[in-house]
Every structure is written in structure tokens, then in C-alpha cells.
Write a structure and sequence with these properties.
249 residues; alpha+beta; Lambda Exonuclease, Chain A; 8 helices; 5 strands; 17% strand; globular
Length: 249
């Protein structure tokens, strides 16, 4: 749980930044009030089942790229299929450096961010690939993932810190981020990087963190700016919870 008085010292993840950008009140509920919401509908059960599947697959991928034997119960056919797709699509090469579940923190002026990468591959041709596993059933597309806070934060951090961490002077153009869904094993969404994109990302991150650090959740929140998010929010069906919050201000 975050203390609002300590926000100026927090290293923000892409999840925190994304939540605040979409709805500051949801950010307050999740990260300041430490409220977790779980319903009992069929849709919610499916959501948590898919989430657990994702966690299991991420653990398997971590073991695979760490050269640790992977053992799966044959009764879990979906996870077995995902794992077979991983093995078929990715051959471990001695020339590459594989860094699964790799965490990086960075601070620059008022920027304080962190990222935990599913996989970083450092190649001998002075290129770095960021890989991210997505296990949701819905097929992703390029336009969608390029706008995600995850892509913005993950690529920005590596663009800033690759020389310091890996002792390699990596040009921005040599950094890419790849999204892969094991159920669509032949499809890889690749986002290429550049110095121009890096500066655009930095500007967005700086502005968002500055706003968050100085945000007054009692005075600044305007429900009308975020009401469209209510139908996607686990804290409200419609916007009655937000309306009740506004009545208390």
C-alpha cells in the first residue's frame, strides 16, 4: 500500500502509471486505500482463471530460458499446449544472453520508474529484444500494443540504461519490443524504437509523473473526465461508486 505522503519517492511501474492515467480515483482505491475487488460472476471466474494461467506460463518461460527443467501435469492441456508452442518457437542459442524476469529501476530528474521484463535477449549484433508474453484469448494487434504504457515504459528504461547495465552502447534503433501469445504462436508483434520515439516517450512519462506527484485526490478528481472508464472498472458497475465518492467531497 502506498502512502500519499511518500509518492514523491515511489518508483512507478507501468501498471501504476496506466491506472492513474485512466482514472485517478481507481489509482487511489487500489494503491492508496489498498482495496481489492473480487466478484463472483462467471466473467470474473474466467478472468481469474486466465490470470492464473498467465502466471503459470510466465513461470514456465522463466524456467525454460534459465535452462531449468520444465515439468507440466499432462491434465493441464492448455498450459501444455502453451509450453509446446514456446519450445517450438524459441531455440536457445549459445550466442545470445537470456535474462528472464529481469527487473530494472531508474531515476532521472523527476522520473522514477521500474519495470520487470518477461525476457530480455541480448544478441551479439549489438541488438536488444524485449519479449512480453500475453496469454489472454483475445488476439492483440500492433496499433493496440504500441499505445500501451507497458511498451512506453519498458522501451524507455532500456533506452536510458542499456550502457550502464549491460556495458553495451546500444543505439535506440537496435532496441525492439516483441509481444507474443502462445495460442497464436506464429504471430509476433514487433515495435521498433528510435531516438525520436524515445524523446516522445520521455515527455509523456515526465508529464504523467509530475501530475501524479502533485495530484490532490480530494480536489482535482473530476468524474466527468473518467466516467467512460466505469464500465471497464472492477470497482463499479456503471458509475455509482464514483458518484458516491463525489458526494463525500
Amino acid at each position: 500500500m502506498l502512502d500519499i505522503r511518500k509518492l514523491n519517492h515511489v518508483y512507478y511501474s507501468q501498471n501504476l502509471l496506466n491506472t492513474f492515467a485512466k482514472c485517478p480515483y481507481k489509482f487511489k482505491l487500489k494503491y492508496l486505500d489498498n482495496i481489492r475487488w473480487k466478484k463472483d460472476s462467471i466473467d470474473d471466474e474466467d478472468y481469474y482463471e486466465n490470470m492464473n494461467m498467465g502466471l503459470d506460463f510466465h513461470l514456465i518461460a522463466q524456467r525454460y530460458f534459465s535452462n531449468i527443467p520444465v515439468v507440466i501435469n499432462d491434465s493441464n492441456t492448455k498450459l501444455l499446449d502453451f509450453t509446446n508452442s514456446l519450445r517450438e518457437k524459441f531455440t536457445i542459442l549459445d550466442e545470445n544472453i537470456y535474462l528472464p524476469e529481469y527487473e530494472i529501476k531508474m531515476r532521472k530528474d523527476n522520473i522514477r520508474i521500474q519495470a520487470k521484463y518477461d525476457l530480455i535477449i541480448i544478441k551479439p549484433n549489438n541488438k536488444i529484444e524485449i519479449w512480453d508474453w500475453k496469454t489472454e484469448n483475445r488476439k492483440l494487434n500492433y496499433r493496440e500494443v504500441t499505445k500501451r504504457m507497458q511498451a512506453i515504459v519498458y522501451m524507455y528504461i532500456l533506452g536510458e540504461r542499456s550502457l550502464e547495465i549491460f556495458d553495451k552502447d546500444i543505439p535506440f534503433e537496435n532496441i525492439s519490443m516483441k509481444f507474443w501469445q502462445p495460442q497464436y504462436k506464429e504471430d509476433i508483434i514487433t515495435i521498433n524504437y528510435s531516438e525520436e520515439i524515445h524523446r516522445t516517450h520521455e515527455k509523456k512519462i515526465v508529464e504523467l509523473i509530475l501530475r501524479l506527484d502533485n495530484y490532490d485526490f480530494n480536489l482535482n478528481f473530476n468524474i466527468e473526465l473518467y466516467r467512460g472508464q466505469c464500465k471497464y472498472c472492477e470497482f463499479a458497475c456503471g458509475s455509482h461508486v464514483c458518484d458516491a465518492f463525489m458526494d463525500m467531497l
